[in-house]
Structure to design on (529 residues):
């Protein structure tokens, strides 16, 4: 994983100071900064060394020097793709997935993107013409942004690197690619349509068939993500998704460790401690007392995460503490259970919306993960030089989930029922029986952070991130306001709207009541579930 920064166009060499600030902004994403300069191109990466650590130096150049690649992410099937390249007579000089990305795009063009199983964003530069090919993974696990200023094209992994330009910043959407030139905006188009996932394929309505497919597909998605000689961490809340991820990582990798963040007495710590003890897995607990979290923590989480919705920002405060501890432990690769709720109906909104709109809601949530849940995971992990991998969002899982009917996703009073059923023989009963509880709530930290929500708009504006997107109310709130009419909610969300002063006041009053009451409550004992 890396951060990337580029300035392309005549006179680029005069922007050395700006380029240095761009590279500094994305430097926390890696361990070493690597650059390639000429008169009309400034290319840089901040590289987190994971695959072929000694040789995969970036920007990676083709053997003839014509092409240069700035790459962020991992392509987990790079070994298979390299074998295919060799069969076609193409040479490679390393064992890195970085080189495979460059060579497969040169060999197969845009079709290479559909052969990659990974989480990636990259810029491939034709050095003579300064044209650049931009691409992002299907669901947007890895970020990519661009802006035009001074007749030059600027590209970076994070918004904060482009804020100093003082111009509009644009996102390369998930599953999109296209060519750009220094003097014209990128001509981007989808190479995969997230709104047509599973379309034209048979529905998996049979319970046994669906369960077998979920088990096989998820196990394989985890397998390719633990193919490393490094120690692998798992972000463990003790809920269904993270517990299942830990069970599979423990089975497929010889050296794993679990990390859990939360207040003493919280649900997450209790469940996670019980599971790791039962499995005999090393467990790093990141205890956080609610009163330890202050405005500085909120501002830093907002600065790092660049998030635009309130709920995601609150979760980012918790994630910041977690990934700082992962880095401190010397772990560079972790797996998370993110994405399962969006695929298999983990949120209450899925059960309140009309049957005719449910599939469209699933697809809407998946298509917007790149700026919500996945953005939180990417920024807060990479900001601490940790690579977070998300097996539930492997492209094979995305396609499978859209072929499984709602009645298998919510059944017998349980969300994500088919996932529980698929792994019923290996999941402990207490994990199978645990219902979904949002991250900041189950960690016991939500209400403390909620105290600062009225200050979010001012903090957000001070960071300059409104050059890319405004701060706005959570889509779940918009949907509820429109009585779960999806068309009305989507239409309303096209014009993002912040919370009103009255809503902030009511929110603050509720948070104050909870925090004052907590001062007189006796501390809860830490017990198992």
């Amino acid at each position: 994983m890396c951060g990337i920064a580029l300035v392309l166009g005549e006179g680029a060499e005069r922007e050395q100071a700006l380029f240095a600030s761009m590279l500094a902004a994305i430097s926390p994403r890696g361990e070493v900064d690597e650059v390639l300069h000429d008169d009309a191109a400034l290319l840089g990466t901040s590289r987190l060394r994971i695959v072929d650590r000694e040789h995969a130096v970036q920007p990676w150049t083709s053997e003839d020097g014509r092409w240069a690649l700035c790459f962020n992410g991992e392509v987990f099937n790079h070994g298979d793709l390299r074998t295919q390249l060799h069969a076609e007579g193409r040479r490679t000089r390393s064992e890195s997935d970085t080189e495979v990305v460059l060579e497969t795009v040169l060999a197969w063009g845009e079709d290479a993107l559909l052969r990659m199983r990974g989480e990636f964003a990259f810029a491939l530069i034709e050095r003579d013409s300064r044209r650049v090919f931009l691409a992002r993974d299907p669901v947007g696990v890895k970020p990519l942004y661009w802006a035009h200023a001074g007749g030059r094209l600027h590209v970076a992994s994070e918004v904060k690197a482009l804020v100093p330009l003082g111009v509009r910043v644009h996102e390369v959407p998930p599953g999109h690619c296209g060519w750009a030139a220094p003097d014209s905006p990128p001509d981007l188009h989808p190479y995969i349509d997230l709104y047509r996932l599973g379309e034209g394929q048979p529905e998996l309505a049979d319970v046994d068939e669906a369960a077998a497919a979920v088990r096989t597909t998820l196990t394989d998605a985890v397998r390719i993500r633990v193919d490393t000689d490094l120690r692998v961490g798992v972000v463990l809340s003790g809920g269904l998704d993270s517990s299942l991820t830990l069970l599979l990582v423990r089975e497929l990798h010889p050296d794993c460790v679990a990390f859990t963040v939360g207040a003493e007495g919280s649900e997450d710590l209790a469940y996670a401690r019980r599971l790791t003890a039962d499995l005999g897995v090393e467990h790093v607990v990141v205890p956080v007392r609610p009163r330890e979290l202050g405005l500085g923590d909120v501002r830093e989480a907002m600065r790092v995460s660049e998030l635009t919705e309130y709920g995601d920002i609150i979760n980012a405060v918790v994630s910041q503490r977690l990934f700082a501890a992962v880095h401190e432990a010397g772990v560079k690769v972790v797996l998370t259970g993110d994405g399962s709720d969006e695929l298999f109906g983990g949120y209450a909104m899925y059960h309140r919306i009309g049957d005719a709109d449910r599939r469209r809601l699933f697809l809407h949530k998946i298509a917007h993960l790149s700026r919500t849940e996945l953005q939180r995971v990417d920024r807060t992990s990479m900001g601490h030089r940790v690579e977070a991998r998300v097996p539930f969002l492997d492209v094979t899982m995305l396609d499978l989930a859209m072929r499984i009917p709602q009645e298998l996703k919510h059944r017998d009073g349980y969300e994500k029922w088919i996932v529980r059923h698929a792994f019923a023989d290996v999941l402990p009963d207490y994990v199978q029986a645990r219902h979904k509880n949002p991250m900041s709530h189950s960690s016991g930290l939500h209400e403390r952070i909620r105290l600062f929500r009225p200050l979010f708009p001012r903090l957000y504006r001070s960071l300059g991130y409104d050059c890319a997107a405004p701060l706005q109310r959570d889509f779940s709130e918009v949907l509820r306001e429109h009585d779960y009419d999806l068309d009305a909610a989507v239409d309303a969300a096209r014009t993002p709207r912040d919370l009103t002063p009255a809503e902030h006041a009511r929110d603050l009053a509720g948070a104050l009541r909870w925090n004052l009451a907590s001062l007189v409550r006796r501390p809860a004992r830490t017990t198992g579930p």
Observations:
- The longest strand covers residues 67-75.
- The radius of gyration is 23 Å.
- Confidence is low (pLDDT under 50) at residues 524-528.
- The chain has two domains: 2-190, 207-520.
